[in-house]
């Protein structure tokens, strides 16, 4: 086991580590949005097929199954969007904590030499619109579909 009491991390190494972790969290958020869009497109297709399937599917013994699908698909969609939303928010929370750590531990001198660890200001806010709003948008759409059907 290595003795870490003598291990020193330079300020530049600390910058690199924080930046790498922010990049990792940002990639995870992108993956989660891909999961969201993939799952929602699949579930919308299944819902549309359930509503517009062949007339034979609206007769016994399939009628109860189709009706169950029309009820369950929106519930599964809402739940998956909510879970992905929570995962996205966790990633954003982690990036916020990393930016605070960066601000507290990296000197102004180094900040003037290296690029920022993440976009700032308006670019940061605008970049977070899609990850924050898309899951909620899907939840609202599914709730509307549930009320209408």
What features would you describe in this structure?
- With 149 residues, this protein is mostly helical.
- The chain has one domain.
- Helix content is 79%, strand content 0%.
- It is built from 4 helices and no strands.
- Helix 2 packs antiparallel against helix 4 (121-148).
- The mean pLDDT is 89.
Structure characteristics:
mainly alpha; 79% helix; elongated
List the helices and strands and how they pair.
Layout: H1 11-52, H2 63-105, H3 108-111, H4 121-148
Please summarize the sheet with the most strands.
none
**Oligomer description:** single chain
Order of helices and strands: HHHH
Low-confidence stretches: none
Question: So how many helices?
Answer: 4
How far is it from the N-terminal to the C-terminal residue, by CA? Answer: 62 Å
* Number of spatially distinct domains: 1
Strand residue content: under 5%
Helix content: over 70%
Q: Could you give the count of β-strands?
A: 0
| Averaged pLDDT | 89
Q: Find the structural class using helix and strand composition.
A: mainly alpha
Note the overall shape.
elongated
Global Rg: 23 Å
């Amino acid at each position: 086991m290595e003795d870490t009491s003598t291990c020193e991390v330079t300020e530049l190494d600390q910058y690199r580590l924080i930046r790498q972790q922010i990049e990792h969290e940002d990639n995870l958020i992108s993956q989660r949005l891909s999961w969201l869009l993939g799952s929602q497109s699949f579930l919308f297709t299944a819902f549309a097929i359930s509503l517009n399937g062949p007339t034979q599917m609206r007769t016994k013994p399939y009628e109860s199954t189709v009706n169950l699908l029309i009820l369950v698909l929106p519930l599964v969609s809402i739940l998956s969007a909510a879970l992905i939303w929570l995962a996205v928010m966790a990633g954003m929370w982690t990036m916020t904590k990393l930016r605070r750590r960066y601000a507290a531990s990296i000197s102004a001198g180094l900040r003037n030499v290296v690029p920022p660890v993440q976009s700032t200001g308006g670019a940061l806010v605008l970049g977070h619109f899609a990850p924050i709003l898309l899951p909620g948008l899907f939840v609202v759409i599914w709730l509307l579909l549930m009320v209408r059907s």
